[in-house]
Amino acid sequence: MTNERAVLLRTRDKPCDIREARKIANGESGIGRLPQHPLLDELIIHVKNPEREIIQPAGIIPCDDWLVYPSSPYFNAGTSFEKGKDFVDIHQIARLPSGYIPEEILGSNWGALRIIPQGFENGADKGVTLEGGIITLHPECVEIINMLIPLNGSPGKIEHSSRIPSMLPEFDPWEPDPGYKKKWKSIPWQEKRWLRRVQNQGVRPVCRRIGDSHISRTIYAVYKPVYGFGVVGLQESE
Questions:
Q1: Using alpha carbons only, how large is the chain's radius of gyration in Å?
Q2: What is the number of domains present in the chain?
Q3: Residue 199 burial class via C-beta count within 10 angstroms: exposed 0-12, middle 13-18, buried 19 and up
Q4: pLDDT value of residue 238
């Protein structure tokens, strides 16, 4: 945890799209941001944390993070990251320019990218811009996730730097290893998460919800950026 605390800025009753959510979080001071996923995960998982109840009325809570991922290998043979080609969401709503795609992930249809966009400069959003009618990401940070969960709603074990779940190497959804359930049970509960994603390729904001133990442990990288979000921002603790 850091010396920042989460603050409810917009409830689910007055939702906004992702660019407006970023603007609200930036605030008049120009130094605020949406919370990054590891911090929000920490707040939501610890059910006795008072900030958890404070931010619950936000409904769908977007993080500063985005998840960029190819079509599932189990869906029409999948897609992959291609050299010199922008990576565009299946619904043509958001894209990651090719210059930001690491060479190490080119050709992969199992991996994904966790993107932290640039912040604001003189009141202008430098990280999530609207170019030619499509949301365009300009990263401050790019992190490779090697084995993203391929099927919507499936479980996995968290990557500790991102708190995004990765698929267990032994897992095959069509021909599961008989010992897989035993291996899954051996994973500590605090490291188990579920992922909601589109089966096609996606460029989606990472979001969370507060609910029962399953909902609170599910990462949502399925909502379009124009979805109606609540807003949680970060402020320095006094």
A1: 17
A2: 1
A3: middle
A4: 58
Q: Kindly state whether residue 109 falls inside one of the protein's structural domains.
A: yes
The confidence score (pLDDT) of residue 2 equals: 52
Residue 150 domain-assigned (yes or no):
yes
Helix (H, G, I), strand (E, B) or coil at 55: helix
pTM as predicted: 0.91
Note the pLDDT tens digit of each residue in 27-76: 876 778 999 999 999 999 988 888 899 999 999 999 999 999 999 887 76
- CA distances from residue 209 to 2, 9, 114, 230, 231 in whole angstroms, order as listed: 21, 15, 19, 10, 12
Residue 78 structural domain: 4-154+194-226
Q: Are 135 and 168 a contacting pair, CB within 8 Å?
A: no
Give the whole-number percent of the chain exceeding pLDDT 90.
Answer: 67
Domain assignment present for 189: no
